[in-house]
Design a protein that fits this description.
The complex is a heterotrimer of chains A (262), B (265) and C (362). Chain A has 262 residues and is mainly α. Chain A has two domains: 42 residues, no CATH class; 183 residues, MetI-like fold. The longest helix of chain A has 34 residues. The two termini of chain A are 36 Å apart. The model of chain A has no long low-confidence stretch (mean pLDDT 89). Chain B has 265 residues and is mainly alpha-helical. In chain B, helix 7 packs across helix 9, helix 8 packs across helix 9 and helix 9 runs antiparallel to helix 12. The longest helix of chain C has 18 residues. The mean pLDDT of chain C is 91. The chains are: A mainly alpha (262), B mainly alpha (265), C alpha+beta (362). Chains in contact: A-B, B-C.
Chain lengths: 262, 265, 362
């Protein structure tokens, strides 16, 4: 009985949680030009979206920035985490960890504003490079935090065993440490990707004329007036994410089952 | 492994700490003592503490952040708790909570503009019910609502994670020793999920102090927070000194929150 | 105080997801006794405890406490306390507050709480550690906190769910004595759950042997050890040699091709049966003097005796305990007394078993 009540409550919550998304997707199929009234079913806005080379370019920019920044941040962060984990003096470890976490807890405006000061001090032109560097910068600490717990699980006896069996220090790194922490590296990369795709405030501060990511573009559009192309874009994003989530869920379930069998 | 090899591979990481953690904070601190012409001054700080508008704005910002965080907590706790009760489907349910986080924040906020605007869906609905049209967009309530909506998953997830680690025999033990359901909740469950509550509060309170996108789009120019003030000083009036001063105040507030919600060991 | 029934279970069935966890369980527990529920993991023994404590509702059947039906009573209203397998100490409270937990719920005065807690901490020898966090305590100390936390509420009965299983062997032995002592001093009923037969034999007044949700046999440790009802009980409790045989007539049983005098009766003529001989009842002798002849396969020195594995001509395996070693591969005789032989019928239920015993024992 209470299970039924709980189920109803959750249903209601999820309805609210998804309402704005469904709302946007619903109007993406309207032939009208505004979000107030649904006219006839139409693919018109999707066609407009694909024809809008500027908007498509911005979407591609956003994805490109996310992929490059996540890859570089994952590399820097992984090696940073390995070094950090090996620090023996507690104060050095704590200090590094505290400095690492500053950007995670800092509000976006502070990161954006301080990076803006930095770039103007070194006279870096605001545009693609300033955005890319900023995205790398705020993704590094989250990678470190994702990799660190995995490194803690890697006890010293594994590494000693590898040396004992004749591995060189390079082989220990590539054959023992990196494979062992690969799930942490992967989730770090994934989080960096999320951070980058979702960022608005930092990009807003450090981007210049002529370069824009999706978030910044939507912000500009929302202030100017609304185009239903954005709704069509939401529809596509929602579709892609739904498929990714379903896929992820089945992988998760299969892994769980396998664990149970073993 | 030889240490020096490690240091070489970690060099980019330490370079990152130097360039993007220490240097920017140092710069913001230095700029906060600069006036518009780049000369040293204490006026920014004097201005902040003497000028009613700045103090009022800081106070406003604080109130909004407290309200947003509190509502998020009250709503998120039962959600996290109930999801954890569905033993078989909770992985799926928590995925449903995560999924909206993947839709760009701007898109969701933009949806609310459509829902709340003068000719928007909500007003159409009210008008068709004969309740007339009302102003929703650019009100405090709309701002709080959207801020809570956008940040709710960041409260649900850490609480959920601490709820599912509660050993069920602790709850049974509490009943066994004579506690009622309410007593068990306040004396056992809340203290045990406190780490989750704290990280949820951290994840919401600090960003709420400095929101400026939702503030601008949903709150209009009526709601002014520390975030909007910084944005304005940096990107509109170009008074980086004053913007940095507000930034330093925000950093201090952030450190206070971190200390308050620190894991006590 | 002893003799009065405190808890009674009547025809308890528990079915979860179409799985019958408990099958028609009925028994009575008397005040002041130490009971043990003994069975392998998954046998349903913990479910019985949960039904008594109130954490699980029986699908059918009744639970009585002091003569009153308590099926509907929630666990926080039952005057029964549980010691959980993992002790379930509250990590957010220190040792003192863990013990004081139940008293605080009753809104007792601070002075009364500190009096009663320190009294109970004296009893379990934990005084001086009040301020410790429970995470700093050793396994044995945690267990004592769990016991103190329950005892401070003056329960009529304590349910203990495998509380010794997390402790090392030496500490476990020590705690067996301590628990037994405590129970006798306080005179309250203990229902102890375990899968460790040695523990059950050492501590209990009365044992229930349970498997697959059914009580197979109940009785004093000596009864169960000497007269196991079936193959499962004989095998589960102590070590035993279980051999197929035939009951020729009352007090005569045939196995390994020979007939032997025994002390069992009440079965059909020539009924197929199983015969139990405990390894410590077997003596090694010369072949001529032995009742059976076996060939020694291997032996292990166990400290106070040698454990010998040997095979007879029918290839039955025999486990023998002997104070003296023998040669590997030696052919020896084994000897035993008629009363060392215990004969078990196939599929006999406890009631039938008891009734049969009545017909020929005095």
């Amino acid at each position: 009985m209470s299970k039924f009540k709980n189920g109803f409550f959750l249903f209601f919550i999820f309805l609210i949680l998804y309402l704005p998304i469904f709302y946007l997707v619903y109007y993406s199929f309207s032939s009208g030009n505004n979000i107030a009234k649904f006219e006839n079913f139409s693919w018109q806005h999707y066609l407009n979206l694909f024809a809008d080379r500027r908007l498509i370019g911005i979407v591609l920019n956003t994805i490109l920035i996310a992929l490059i920044s996540a890859t570089i941040a994952t590399t820097i962060g992984t090696f940073g985490a390995i070094y950090l984990n090996d620090l023996t003096r507690p104060w050095a470890k704590n200090l590094t960890l505290t400095l690492n976490n500053i950007l995670i807890v800092s509000p976006d405006v502070i990161i954006g504003a301080s990076f803006l000061i930095l770039y103007s001090a070194i006279k870096l032109h605001l545009g693609f490079w300033s955005v890319l560097i900023s995205h790398i910068a705020f993704s590094v600490p989250i990678v470190v935090l994702m990799v660190l717990p995995k490194l803690k699980e890697l006890t010293h006896s594994y590494i000693d065993a590898a040396y004992d069996l004749g591995a060189s220090s390079q082989q220990v790194l590539t054959r023992v440490i990196l494979p062992f922490i690969s799930s942490g590296i992967f989730s770090g990369f994934f989080m960096a990707l999320t951070y980058s795709l979702d960022d608005f405030a930092v990009t807003f501060f450090v981007t210049g004329n002529g370069f824009s990511t999706l978030s910044v573009e939507i912000y500009a559009m929302a202030r100017r007036g609304i185009s239903l192309e954005i709704n069509a874009l939401t529809g596509i994003i929602f579709f892609v994410i739904s498929i990714a989530m379903v896929f992820y869920y089945f992988v998760l379930q299969r892994n769980k089952k396998q664990k149970r069998i073993n | 492994m030889a240490k020096f090899k490690h240091f070489l591979v970690a060099a980019p990481y330490y370079l990152w700490i130097g360039l993007f953690v220490i240097l920017p904070i140092g710069l913001i601190f230095i700029y906060s003592f600069h006036d518009l012409n780049g000369h040293f001054t204490l006026n920014n700080y004097l201005n902040f503490f003497k000028n009613q508008t700045y103090l009022l704005m800081a106070f406003n910002s604080l109130c909004f952040a407290i309200i947003i965080t509190f509502i998020s907590l009250i709503v998120a706790y039962p959600i996290a708790w109930i999801i954890s009760k569905f033993q078989n489907s909770r992985d799926f349910l928590i995925l449903l909570v995560i999924m909206p986080m993947w839709i760009n924040l701007l898109l969701k906020t933009y949806a609310f503009i459509g829902i709340f605007s003068r000719n928007g869906t909500l007003n159409n609905l009210l008008a068709s019910l004969g309740l007339g049209r009302h102003q929703f967009l650019f009100t405090d309530i709309a701002f709080i609502l959207v801020a809570v909506y956008d940040q709710l998953p960041f409260m649900i997830l850490p609480i959920y994670n601490s709820v599912i680690t509660i050993n069920h025999s602790l709850i049974n033990a509490s009943f066994d020793l004579g506690a009622s359901k309410t007593q068990t909740f306040w004396r056992i469950i809340v203290p045990l999920t406190l780490p989750g509550i704290k990280s949820g509060v951290q994840a919401i309170f600090i960003p709420s102090l400095s929101l400026f996108m939702i503030t601008r789009l949903i709150g209009g120019n009526r709601v002014i927070t520390l975030g909007t003030a910084i944005e304005e000083h940096f990107l509109s009036t170009m008074n980086w000194g004053m913007g940095s001063t507000i930034g330093v105040i925000l950093i201090i507030a952030m450190i206070l929150i971190m200390l308050l919600t620190k894991e006590s060991k | 105080m002893t003799g009065k029934t405190i808890v009674e279970l009547k025809n308890i069935n528990v079915i979860i997801d179409d799985l019958q966890i408990l099958k028609n369980i009925s028994f009575e527990l008397e005040t002041g006794k130490f009971y043990t529920m003994l069975g392998p993991s998954g046998s349903g023994k913990t479910t019985i405890l949960k039904v008594i404590a109130g954490f699980s509702q029986p699908t059918s059947g009744e639970v009585f406490f002091n003569g009153k039906k308590i099926n509907q009573l929630p666990p926080n209203k039952r005057k029964i306390n549980t010691i959980f397998q993992d002790y379930a100490l509250f990590p957010n409270l220190n040792l003192f507050e863990n013990v004081a937990f139940g008293l605080r719920l009753q809104h007792k005065h601070n002075s009364e709480i500190s009096d009663r807690v320190s009294q109970i901490l004296d009893l379990v020898q934990l005084n001086g550690l009040e301020k410790r966090s429970v995470e700093e305590l050793s396994g044995g100390q945690r267990q004592r906190v769990a016991i103190a936390r329950s005892l401070v509420l003056n329960p009529k009965m304590l349910l203990l769910d495998e509380p010794l299983s997390a402790l090392d062997a030496k500490l476990r032995k020590k705690m067996q004595y301590e628990l037994r002592n405590l129970q006798q001093r306080l005179g309250i009923t203990f229902l102890f759950i375990t899968h460790d037969q040695e523990e059950a034999l050492a501590m209990s007044d009365f044992i229930f042997v349970i498997n697959n949700g059914e009580i197979l046999q109940s009785g004093t440790p000596v009864d169960i050890y000497d007269e196991p009802i079936n193959h499962f009980v004989a095998d589960f409790i102590g070590q035993s040699n279980i051999i197929d045989g035939t009951m020729v007539r009352d007090f005569v049983v045939k196995f390994v091709g020979k007939t032997f005098e025994c002390s069992d009766a009440g079965m059909r003529h020539n009924e197929p049966v199983e015969v139990v001989l405990r390894p410590e009842d077997l003596d090694i002798t010369e072949v001529k003097k032995g009742k059976l002849t076996v060939k020694v396969k291997s032996q292990i020195f166990r400290g106070d005796y040698y454990e010998i594995i040997a095979y007879d001509e029918d290839h039955n395996k025999w486990l023998i305990q002997s104070t003296n070693p023998v040669k590997d591969g030696a052919i020896v005789g084994i000897n035993f007394d008629p009363e060392d032989i215990h004969v078990m019928r196939f599929g006999e239920k406890e009631q039938e078993f008891d009734a049969r015993l009545e017909t020929y024992e005095d």
